[in-house]
From TrEMBL:
Keywords: Cytoplasm, Metal-binding, Zinc, Zinc-finger. Residues 330-377 form the RING-Gid-type domain. It comes from the Eukaryota. This is Uncharacterized protein. PANTHER family: GH10162P (PTHR12170:SF3), MACROPHAGE ERYTHROBLAST ATTACHER-RELATED (PTHR12170). PROSITE patterns: CTLH (PS50897), LISH (PS50896), ZF_RING_GID (PS51867). Residues 153-204 form the CTLH domain. It comes from Daphnia pulex. The keyword Cytoplasm applies.
Amino acid sequence: MEVLEACNNVGQHIDAALSNFATTYEEGKRKIEEATEILLSIKRDFEQKQEVNAKESQLGVSRVKECLSQLSKQHKKIQKSLSNIEKKIEANFQRGCGVSIFPPILPDSEKLLNQAICLHLLRNGFVESGVEFSRECGLEIDDRIQEACKLTEIQAKLKENHLDAAIAWAQGHHQELLEKNSDLEFKLHQMKFIQILSQGPQWQNEAIAYAKNHFPLFSDRHKTEIAKVMGILPFIKRGVHNSPYGHFFDPVLWTEINQLFNRTAAAVLGFSVESPLSTSINVGVMALPVFEKFQKTMAEMKIQWDITSDTEMPIEIDTDGRNYHSVFSCPILKQQSSPSNPPMRLPCGHAMSLDAIKQTLAYYRGSFRGSAKCPYCKMGFEKSQVTELHF
């Protein structure tokens, strides 16, 4: 309740500042136009070599100075409103990150962070900003970034109910969609058929021709759906919205097709459905209060812990049931995997951590018992037969 009240208090000043911005913009625009017109009038008099009245020129210059003075006052007024917002935030909210220490970005992670920022910009439609950011931080415009740019353009068109670009993309990835057992391509064609019919009875022949050209490809998997959507045709002239097929014209279907395209395209191209940058910020916000308390406790106990290390966190961070990455826990050493201790697969199919593999190999070498054996099925294995697992 206290947080809500604080937000409302700050929100009132933000609303007032925004209103002030709008008023100042209009007044400033008018003053600039007025000053420009005065200066242009004086310039025209000089260019036409007419006799220039000194008093009128001085009066014009004075009016221009007055306009500029008023603009300066308005600018100060805006700065004052911004300063008030800052003061209200400090007065209504407690300190933010407390004793939390934010170390420099790990060298190995800087490129990944830049890629996440770049892809976030591209996937949210800020293509020019994304390309410029990638140029400034030295990222190559690889196939992944180009695909993200293309995907953003298609998504923008799909939001405006333009299906052609999305259909072309689905046709270009026909095999990948089949491998993922996706209905996206058929759903897009079905939506296009419905869109043509929604234009009126005079478009019925074109809709039938479209169905003949595209539906046969999906007749094996979607025979029932095709039959249902073709059932719309007899009701075209009488009105489809009051027919048993009116649900095909529900606007919510556009929302569903957008969501389906976003999920499927992300899966095909190897992107996460949500932006990695948004995900990182969300989990960071959830973890920060716990982490702040942990750091404070460590400081009071005079215990040092290197935040930049790759070791496991000494505390549990509750992410509200949402897992943002795959976690492998070694069944032998009871440890979670890490970049330096990844999960490994034995020839028999069982898995354990790299450290457990090393210990097993060292044990059998030291005891002269021959080749190492899997702790579960006792099948022998050599070091060369072990492969890293990727989830």
